[in-house]
Amino acid sequence: MPRHITIDPVTRIEGHAKITIQLDDSGEVSDAQFHVTQFRGFEKFCQGRPFSEMPSLTARTCGICPVSHLIASAKACDRLLAVDIPPAAALLRRLVNLAQLVQSHALSFFHLSSPDLLFGMNGDPAKRNIFGVIESYPALAKDGVALRKFGQELIEILSGKRIHPAWIVPGGVAEALTEEKRERMLSMLPGAMEIAERTLEWFKGVIGRFEEEIEHFGNFPSMFMGLVTPTSATNPEALLDHYDGKLRFIDAEGKIVADQVELDCYQEHIGELVETFSFLKSPYYKPLGYPEGIYRVGPLARLNLVDRCGTPKADREHALFRATQSGPVSSSFQQHYARLIEILYGIEQIAELLNDPDILSPHVRAYAQPNRFEGIGISEAPRGTLIHHYKIDKNGAMLWMNLIIATGHNSLAMNRSVRQVAERYVKGDQIQEGMLNRVEAVIRTFDPCLSCSTHAWGEMPLRVTLLGPSGQILHQLER
Amino acid sequence: MSRLLIIGYGSTLRGDDAAGRYAADRIAERLGELPSVEVLSVPQLTPEIVLSVASAEEIYFIDAAGKGISGTWSRTVVLPEEELSNPLGHHYHPAALLGFARALCQSTPRAWMIAVSGKSFACGETLSPEVERAIGEIVTFVCSEGGRV
Questions:
Q1: Phi and psi based region of residue A389 (left: phi greater than 0; alpha: psi -120 to 50; beta: remaining)
Q2: 0.95 cut: is pTM over it?
Q3: Residue B42 with chain A: CB contacts under 8 Å
């Protein structure tokens, strides 16, 4: 008779989830699933509200990446208004988007994932947590806090608030940037850059310890998707673009499958399926069907999609990163590496934007009444591509909304990764701590934001129970 | 390095819960740009604040309280918690933040909590009159502390 292992809740991720591992009679893994247990309902309760409220409302989906929702939502509203926002507004939106990228990646790397990297997957659970990092590696812990502070402070300087700012609006932004604020942000850059470079060098020095994880953590062929800069016959090079650009899909060998896809056409390429075991929808690449159309988004995907990042230091690191494998880098473990390169890119790009003379322009908002009944906004959130799709009536009231969240795009990939790790590390009647941590750790490589992706609070004890054929408890672990 | 750090926190959308925020904002206006004073007005205490906490000598936390006679306020000493409760969390209480500062930076500033009892925490952006009065008293008190540093 088959046996069941449940990890509930998964630790050190944003939001709540559990993992179920099914063993067959011989103790081998026959199936594994990643269940998202939160339900949010944004797509429903936003119906009937004025479209202009959507940036503020959808920002409340999450306290970690509200800026991402503000950006995608405002872009969808721009389309409803049928406006081109002023150039300065686009620069400022790019700036705040990158500030968020830096702080979110810092949270993921330093706070959520560093215990595994510093103490190893088999490290003493009593130390393999953020307390252990603070005690044993205080300099690294401080760097993580400082880098996150950097990103949060930029967001606050630009928009007035660190969390749920009201500054990003349909048509642009609410307020122009002053010289004083610009100077303040510029003065913060050297310190942030130092931390980013130091951490990247440290990580490259220790990555050799993780050959096993690189080989077996979510390492499987898949497509990748994300936004890239517009390309043409005379300018064929695709660079990172977290704010705008066109969609690109590549296959597991790196061949471009769909390119320069206009954002309004996303539904021709992306379908969504609801699985019964999770509140997280499962998007897939439509031409290949479900589940063959599995694709990944996020830092790893973005670095696989582009020819280079677009800033000098990040370009050098990107070249080294891509040289680690022929074709796209396929191991989900390498998301950690990709995040650090994106932090570097973010800081370099923030410097370029702050030094753009147009960024101080007082003209930062375009005004109009609704001129279209349907609007789509797509941007790159820290975790991957974020889609806001709205339909309104003639009075501007929301009729329909579809949100495809970055973590949602990775739903199939997270399931595949959990199964792959479970097949390798979970065996027999006894659950060992290191096994469980590896299953959780592979989820952490995706840095999922489950609060976002299921558009609930509660504390659950972590209990893993292995049941025998008759339902008797064979083994149980509690945290 | 700030000798005096003032942190007012709470939600500006829930009536008297904004008391700490308004107090901090008015303190910042009164004290201006004194180099030895840092004022933070934040929705909640987050881990990043630990760097400001660790570099201060004295700290005043200002927040609304749900208990007590509305409009009254108190000042109590805050000690760092002995065992870190959750440095990974998105929001802290003052003792946890002080504990984090001690663990991360070996810093132990003197700290006080100024709690003002609120009347209404319903959705809204106005303060009740008694809390307004209390904020005036708190601002005067803290600014006198700020003036001596």
A1: beta
A2: no
A3: 162
